[in-house]
Amino acid sequence: MSHWDETYDALAGCYDAMTQDVNYPAWADFLEKLFARQPRPVHTVLDLACGTGTMSFLLARRGYEMIGVDFSPEMLAVAAEKTLEDVGEPPIFLCQAMEDLDLYGTVDACVCLLDSVNHVTRADKLQKAFQRVRLFLEPGGLFVFDVHTPAHLQGLDGGIFLDETEDAYCVWRTDYDPRRKICTYGMDVFHRQGGLWRREEEVHEERAYTPEELTAYLTRAGFVDIRQYGDRKLRPPRDGEERLFFTARKPAESWK
After folding, report:
1. pLDDT class for 254, splitting at 50, 70, 90?
2. Distance (Å, whole) CA 222 – CA 2
3. Per-residue pLDDT at 166
4. CA 22 to CA 15: how far, in whole Å?
5. DSSP state of 89
6. DSSP state of 186
7. Which of 19, 149, 201, 237 is buried most, with the most CB atoms less than 10 Å from its CB?
8. pLDDT tens track for 49-89
9. What is the tens place of the pLDDT at every residue in 203-251?
10. Are 64 and 42 in contact (CB under 8 A)?
11. Closest by alpha carbon to 217, among 246, 238, 237?
């Protein structure tokens, strides 16, 4: 998934091919388990930081009315080329920053997946983003997001990683700054053009947020019933898990 202060000029065209290892149906299954636990039925869903819209289309096929929001025009251009064949209503896509979220109405649930929250590296922007999500949820509506743990991001320091497809090749290097709590990904992306390769560079960042910090931001934004789960598990997180899920609800009696 993509984020606000970053560009995806180089990655957008090959993002889906390079994330084929992401088990989107399993993620959707977990979301539906969380939806089923809510007192309020979930019909309309906001996919925040939707990227190329893979999850938006998957949930639309499962019968949900979907709105996908992302800051990257490049990623949304890829999403716009996708189609929903004969099943469900196609998602509506909007190009917006999370902290400036502005919908035409309210939704029953908002999901923000694949550590997109970590990509919001300024705490004040994340706080505002949570407030905007709450504003556009129906009373009793559900907010679901996941994050990489601080231990996971710290463990990436000094790493070199490689992804490749038939027509693209991506090498990225990671550097973790403990003072800023920022993990920086320096990426070199090569695209095949006939018999030649075109090289582009991108830089992305993720911030390490503690569960306590995220809980405080959600509380200040007016959310209640804040819960933590293990990596796509309906149980509390366990030591050593590298990804956590959060759920929070807008108060049922709220009118704003």
Report:
1. low
2. 26
3. 81
4. 11
5. P
6. E
7. 149
8. 999 999 999 999 999 999 999 999 999 999 999 987 766 78
9. 999 999 999 999 999 999 999 999 999 999 999 999 999 999 999 999 9
10. yes
11. 246
* Widest distance between CA atoms in the chain: 62
According to DSSP H, which parts of 119-233 are helical? 123-135, 150-155, 211-220
Residue linked to tokens 């939704």: 107
Number of H helices, E strands in the chain: 7, 11
Q: Of 22, 245, 232, 242, whose CA–CA distance to 154 is shortest?
A: 242
* Through-space distance between the first and last CA atoms of the chain, rounded to whole angstroms: 28
Under the phi-then-psi rule, with left for phi > 0, alpha for psi from -120 to 50, and beta for the rest, what region is 88?
left
- The DSSP output letter for 76 is H
Q: What percent of the chain has pLDDT over 70?
A: 95
- Nearest alpha-carbon partner for 56 in 19, 26, 90: 90
Distance CA 79, CA 85 (A): 14
Residue 81 identity: E
